[in-house]
Amino acid sequence: MESLPVAGPGAVDRHLLVVFGATGDLFRQKLVPALYHLVRQYNLADRFLILGVARSQMEDEDFRALSRVSIEGISRGQAQLGEEYADPGDWCDEALYFQSIGTGEAHAYRALRNRIERIEAAHGLSGNRIFYLALPPAAIGPTVRGLGASGLAHSAGWTRLVVEKPFGVDVESAVALNRVLHGCFDEPQIYRIDHYLGKATVQNLLVFRFANPLFESVWNRDRIDNIQITVAEAVGIGQRAAYYDRSGALRDMVQNHLTQLLSLVAMEPPVSFDAEAIRDEKVKILQSVRPLRPDDVVFGQYTAGQANGRSVSGYLEEQGVTPGSVTPTYAALRVFVDSWRWQGVPFYLRTGKRMHSRLTQVAVTFHGPPVTLFKSFERSGRQGNVLYFKLQPHEGFDLLFDVQKPSDHPQLDTRSLAFAYEEAFGSLPDAYETLLYDVMTGDRTLFVRSDEAEEAWRRYTPMLEAAISPHPYPAGSWGPKEAERLLSPRDHEWTVRLPDNGDPGI
Ligand code: NDP
Ligand code: BG6
């Protein structure tokens, strides 16, 4: 996890980046803008070339034009970057090529290999290659086999393989996918992307915990009452019904993004800050998660309502959704980690589409004082000490504490110590910039190891098979009321820190 401020051309070996799925949404919305931004910010133009691959036929010129339009549509903080390559078209013309793989026959892979070797020879590259699979899940296995059979899994330089989530759809398919990957590539060559790990604020969970002994000393069952992880999205499923209706919230968000957050919040200090040490500790947390039971889980599905100030359809009315579908668009879970540190502390996880607002937060609620001296005080607000990690939007931390409010009668008020990233450091890098840079420099810390992916599926697969019916919730709400029953036995309540007024609320 080399941080971006030390990034630069010296750290990146010259290489060819081969992107499968280079006409798709991920490439256009995220990858090519992030690559362009890296080039300009860290002078990487002479460090790498890109060969886009898809089944469709396309000329190099058309691929360059498509990429240029994508970059222009997503300009992020380009103003302070200087003049070189200020026109993205200049970089696209120099650095981008395209090759069709057709239906993936052996001859198409031979042609791909020839094209790679010709580009490398023409530009004096020594055979360092990244294969980035921005592909629909069903295309991953055949593509990996195609690369293996055509001798592209290894080269005279280094070869790295990047795989996008989902890593399977249950434990069985995750194991099968890893078998396919390991049939052609060695684990150290493989970079499984969970883009949440690329978010600067997610990485900072580790820095916050392990660079600040003040907090680490209270990071345990003796001081912490409960931990909540909320990943709320205001958007619906958009045009992704074909994928989403077969996936749902548990597969799409909980197994990966929320579980990564859980692991980072709960893990023990690693023996060092290197990739394997950190990943070892994350796997141990997953192994310590108590088997879930159906009554630890509440699913929901959005119905029509008001979102972002306009009327929106319910999930069942979205184009492409199977009539009567029971796919959950919301999931809430009560998780226990059976370790010395966390015994008895509930971790509440929830995520959903079409919720009240877009917001990702971790709320750590500390125990109240052992003796209440201020019983006679009136209280405004209901919380004592809560630490909110605000991962998006308005990234930062808020620590809530009680003060006495000046008044004619004794009164407690909740106030906060607040830190905002943007105020301190300006805008944060996009997750894909961080992750692409890490692949280029060979840093695997922020990528998911095979055992980690399998272990996460092992925890959730029984809940996928338990046929839990989703409860309806109106679009624009915080999810189904039934999710409160996960917290009520301990008298807990869902909490997030709302950006508008800063008040703790639901
Ligand atoms: P799209 O459907 O938009 O694009 C898929 C791309 O793959 C197209 O370029 C398509 O072109 C190509 N393709 C499909 N089948 C093959 C094949 N057999 N061989 C070679 N190319 C093929 O998907 P996305 O870009 O949205 O998603 C790609 C992956 O990234 C998925 O795994 C998704 O889960 C993941 N992801 C996407 C995110 C996003 O923001 N879009 C965010 C996080 C993850 P053609 O049809 O010409 O072959
Ligand atoms: C993706 C999911 O992995 O993450 C999407 O497939 C979801 O359904 C997205 O919308 C959320 O990412 P972010 O970065 O917008 O929180």
Write up this protein.
This protein starts with 14 loop residues before the first strand and ends with a strand. A hairpin with a 6-residue loop joins strand 19 (496-497) and strand 20. The chain is built from 14 helices and 20 strands. Strands 14-17-16-15-13-7-12-11-8-18 form a 10-stranded mixed sheet. It has a 6-stranded parallel sheet with strand order 3-2-1-4-5-6, with helices on both faces. A two-stranded antiparallel ribbon has the order 9-10. With 506 residues, it is α/β, with parallel strands linked by helices. The longest helix has 19 residues, at 248-266. Residues 1-6 and 501-506 have low confidence and may be disordered. Helix 5 runs parallel beside helix 6. Helices cover 33% and strands 23% of the residues. It has helices spanning 25-42, 60-73, 88-95, 106-123, 137-149, 171-184, 200-211, 213-216, 241-244, 248-266, 275-288, 421-425, 431-441, 450-464, and strands spanning 15-20, 48-54, 96-100, 129-133, 159-164, 190-193, 224-232, 297-303, 305-307, 310-312, 330-336, 346-352, 359-366, 378-380, 386-392, 396-404, 411-420, 471-474, 496-497, 504-505. The site of NADPH dihydro-nicotinamide-adenine-dinucleotide phosphate has 24 residues, from helix 1, strand 2 and helix 5.
